[in-house]
Amino acid sequence: MNPQRKISKLSRAIKVLHVVGARPNFVKVAPLMREMSKYKQKFEQKLVHTGQHYDEEMSKLFFDDLGLNEPDIYLGVGSGTHAEQTGKIMIEFEKVCLEEKPDLVIVAGDVNSTIACALVAVKLHIPVAHVEAGLRSFDKTMPEEINRLLTDQITDYLFTTCKDANQNLIKEGITRDKIFFVGNTMIDTLLQQAEIAKKSMILENLGLRDNDNLKRYAVVTLHRPSNVDNPTVLEGILTALNELAKEIPVIFPAHPRTIKQIRNFKLQEMINYEENSKAVGVKKASRKIFAIPPLGYLDFLRLMSEASVVLTDSGGIQEETTILGIPCLTLRANTERPITTTAGTNSLVGNDSQEILGRALDVLKNRIQRKKIPKHWDGKAAVRIARVLRKKAKAGF
Ligand code: UD1
User: Fold this and answer.
1) Same domain for 119 and 260?
2) N or C: which end of the chain has fewer CB within 10 A?
3) What total of structural domains would you count in the chain?
């Protein structure tokens, strides 16, 4: 770090830029901003939204549900190829750093906004903290794995969610003094919002709950390139889900890129797509996948909490189902979150059509039992991070 940037013993509040770009970032950053806002004399915080996710359902709904203030700075970069998106974020974020002169940049997770902003900051000699460091799928065909590996190599404070993440970092040569096992801020959010989510009417709106009667149903999310960019793979997954839909309703809040691919590959006949999730019950779709637009945080949490099984290729949902005790089948060959399969309710099933169906039917017969809650997934991860940062700030970073 550039010694010129050293802050003299907390003579003023340190200026922190929090970076968010995509849906999972919002969930990870909200509790940290809330916690750090308790120390106004120590931290002056600003929220930078890169605009990687920009649709109302992918962004604004989350800000509203999580009680996040409007971003202080919006870069509006939108979509593009990886190089275009990463490059645009870097160009815009560099201007922000030069203007704002932050003492610390905090990035979260593994999306393109994470690596882009970490790289900009570190080259300007601004200390960077990474929330959710050290996760590894060991699969470099995943863009997120590249983002994780590179971000961790260049950041100064690495906050991990589990001990195996610490081990991964140490094996990669990161020194122990930079690594802090603090727990999972995504779970902080889940625990904070669980009661509020009970007020969501999503189950009633979808016809899954009638008075006190709750139907058994499955929830699906799908957006990874490995699942949705190949027509044969995508068709195979949709076939399995339609077979499952003959047993129980299959609710599919669909990412815009997935809907786009379903249309590109002319597979739209395989789903019932209702653009307005509030308008209809699920009866109409009872023996076919019922796709709806992406849900806000609270509605999705409610939907997931009462499901018989969740099928997903998301990272965060593997963790959330572990805490909720809901069986999760991950439609991937690997996971960067192995603790959810050893301690939690998650199983890897890959993307073979027969395997997905067989495993889903199995779960309906024999519920996967929750084993245990991973250490520090207790709602206090943000408190631990803020404590470390206060200490570091006191020492002048
Ligand atoms: C990104 C992350 C992924 C994360 C996911 C969460 C990367 C490399 N990937 O994937 O790790 O799990 O967010 O949702 O950063 N689109 C819209 N509206 C939006 C956003 C996206 O229509 O608001 C469409 C666009 O066609 C866009 C495509 O989705 O090109 C992909 O968006 P992008 O942000 O590049 O990646 P995600 O698939 O969302």
Assistant:
1) no
2) N
3) 2
